[in-house]
Structure formats: structure tokens, C-alpha cells
């Protein structure tokens, strides 16, 4: 079979012929239909992540979609985080506990593009953030995969208004395409300036901020929250620290909540993946993505890492011969 392999940490994968894996105890073989190139894949392959240097060579890919025993499935792997191979191959051996059966109408490419990023958006909004019908939501980093999904899921969940924040013109356009009512430019680190922009974009105080960024943008968005408003942080792609003032937190009795997918039970994760697949099949949930043949994995990896791709890259392995 054909597969992408990380041979040396810090280098893009090489595509090679490998033996078809044999399912071990508790494992199932999956014919991979789609394998996304995610930030976690890129991080693990550097060899400098908190998971340590991965054992090489290995097949990357921490999630994917395909067919197992004639059933459409989504699956997760620990490739790059622990010894073993991932989804960027024509066939993957996956622990049965990490398989989620998808609705028959699910599009494997759409599900792969959304994947755990959409799960994070969904569960951070609804489970951790307790989004209620009729509330106003601010979504930061709305041009990224988590942010695009969050804008759409907030709508599905009944938000009355969704205000997006994104940095680049391209990211702001992706947020508009996702359906944001207003889009704030995050092109400065001045908190007061950003806070004024959020105040103008919001229709009165906001109820919930979804924040994968942290940093000045998060501090500014917090000022737009109502008394008792919720701020859910699920990342620090802008900064590891945030210049939030104690008076903002205390004066409005804000609830600052952390979120990670790692906190989910297997049942919660599976239910969220099915929700994502169902909404994608209905045409309500999608993110900007592009498909690339597995044979071009190396070049695709470089573009995703450099941020020059038009969206999340999804590798298409094709059928094993």
C-alpha cells in the first residue's frame, strides 16, 4: 500500500510503499478515504512537542475517515504521540474503541476536514459554554477551522447574533462565508482599540466568548461580555498570556472556563462526531478545505505548515491495490 512516512523529525513526510498492516488484538482495519493534515500532526512531527521525539519512521495522521467492515467510520490515532502509525495511508489498523460509526450519508472528506476541530467548537460552545437559544456569541480566530465551525454551530444551536474576530483579510472573508453577522479585524494588539470594535459590532453585551487565541483579542472581547458572561478558552494560538484586567473579571462577575477535547469521555466524543457528520450532510456545517492526493503529501504538508493552503488540507489515499 502507499503511505506517507515521517522518516526524520522536522522534515515533511515521504510517500512510500509499505506492507498492508495486520490488525492486532482489539484492532480493525480501515480503508482510509480521507486524512486531514492537522496542527497536531505538524506539531508532533517536529520532534520538539511535549510528547517528545516520535519513534521514526512512522505514518502520521491523528484522525481520518474511511470504511471498516463495510461501515463508514471516523477514527482517531495516537500517531506522533505514541509508537504506531496513523491515517495517512491507504489502510490503517485502528483500535476498535477509537472508531466512530458515521451516518450512511456522511461525506468522508467533509467529516475529515471538520474532525476534532469541529468537536472542540461544538462541545466548547454547548457543553462547556452552555450556549442557550437567543444568546449573542463572539467567536475569535473565526477564520480558522475551529472558528469557522464555531460560527456555524452557534447558529445551529440558536444564537441570535454571532460576531467574529479574525486577523487577515482572507480569514475575515472565511468568517463571513461561515455566516457571521459582523466581523471584527484583529489587526492590532491594542486592547482598547479592539474592545471598541467589538462594542460596535455587538448588539448590546455578549453572552459568550469562544476563544482559541488568548492574548489581546481575548482581553478585548471579554470587555464586550454582559454581567455574568462566559469566556471559554480552548487555545493560545495568539499568545500564551492575556492582558486581562482584574476589574473586568470581578466587576462583571465573568466566568472564565477552560476547555480541552481531552476532557471528553469516549461517548461524548463519539456523539459530537456524529452530530458534526449529520450537520455536514445536511449542508449546515462546513469549513474551507482542499483535497490533495496522498502522493503529494510532502508538498501539501509544507503548504499547511507555512499557512499558504486555502484551508485545511485533506489527503486522499485512494484504494490499495
TrEMBL record:
Sequence ranges assigned to domain Enoyl reductase (ER) in this UniProt record: 10-315
Query: What domain of life does the UniProt record list for this protein's source?
Result: Bacteria
Name the PANTHER family on file: QUINONE OXIDOREDUCTASE-LIKE PROTEIN 2, SHORT-CHAIN DEHYDROGENASE/REDUCTASE
In the record, what terms sit under GO molecular function? oxidoreductase activity
**Which SMART domains does this chain map to?**
PKS_ER (SM00829)
Give the InterPro entries listed for this entry.
Answer: ADH-like_C (IPR013149), ER (IPR020843), GroES-like_sf (IPR011032), NAD(P)-bd_dom_sf (IPR036291), Zn-ADH-like_protein (IPR051397)
User: Gene3D superfamilies attached here?
Assistant: Medium-chain alcohol dehydrogenases, catalytic domain, NAD(P)-binding Rossmann-like Domain
Name the record gives this protein: Zinc-binding dehydrogenase
Question: What SUPFAM superfamilies is this protein classified in?
Answer: GroES-like, NAD(P)-binding Rossmann-fold domains
Amino acid at each position: 500500500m502507499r503511505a506517507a512516512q515521517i522518516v526524520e523529525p522536522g522534515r515533511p513526510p515521504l510517500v512510500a510503499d509499505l506492507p498492508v498492516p495486520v490488525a492486532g488484538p482489539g484492532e480493525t482495519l480501515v480503508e482510509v478515504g480521507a486524512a486531514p493534515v492537522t496542527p497536531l500532526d505538524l506539531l508532533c512531527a517536529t520532534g520538539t512537542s511535549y510528547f517528545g521525539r516520535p519513534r521514526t519512521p512512522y505514518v502520521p495522521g491523528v484522525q481520518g475517515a474511511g470504511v471498516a467492515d463495510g461501515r463508514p467510520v471516523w477514527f482517531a490515532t495516537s500517531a506522533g504521540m505514541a509508537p504506531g502509525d496513523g491515517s495517512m495511508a491507504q489502510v490503517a489498523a485502528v483500535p476498535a474503541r477509537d472508531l466512530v460509526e458515521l451516518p450512511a450519508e456522511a461525506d468522508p472528506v467533509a467529516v475529515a476536514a471538520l474532525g476534532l476541530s469541529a468537536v472542540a467548537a461544538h462541545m466548547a460552545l454547548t457543553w462547556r459554554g452552555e450556549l442557550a437559544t437567543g444568546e449573542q456569541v463572539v467567536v475569535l480566530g473565526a477564520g480558522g477551522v475551529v472558528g469557522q465551525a464555531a460560527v456555524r454551530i452557534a447558529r445551529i444551536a440558536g444564537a441570535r447574533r454571532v460576531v467574529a474576530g479574525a486577523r487577515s483579510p482572507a480569514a475575515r472573508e472565511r468568517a463571513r462565508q461561515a455566516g457571521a453577522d459582523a466581523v471584527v479585524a484583529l489587526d492590532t494588539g491594542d486592547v482598547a482599540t479592539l474592545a471598541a470594535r467589538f462594542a460596535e459590532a455587538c448588539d448590546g453585551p455578549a453572552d459568550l466568548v469562544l476563544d482559541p487565541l488568548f492574548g489581546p483579542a481575548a482581553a478585548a472581547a471579554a470587555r464586550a461580555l454582559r454581567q455574568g458572561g462566559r469566556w471559554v478558552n480552548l487555545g493560545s494560538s495568539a499568545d500564551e498570556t492575556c492582558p486581562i484586567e482584574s476589574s473586568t473579571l470581578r466587576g462583571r462577575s465573568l466566568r472564565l472556563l477552560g476547555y480541552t477535547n481531552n476532557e471528553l469521555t469516549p461517548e461524548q466524543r463519539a456523539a459530537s462526531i456524529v452530530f458534526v457528520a449529520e450537520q455536514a450532510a445536511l449542508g449546515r456545517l462546513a469549513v474551507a478545505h482542499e483535497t490533495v492526493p496522498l502522493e503529494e503529501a510532502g508538498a501539501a504538508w509544507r503548504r499547511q505548515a507555512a499557512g499558504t493552503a486555502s484551508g485545511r488540507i485533506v489527503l486522499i489515499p485512494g484504494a490499495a491495490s
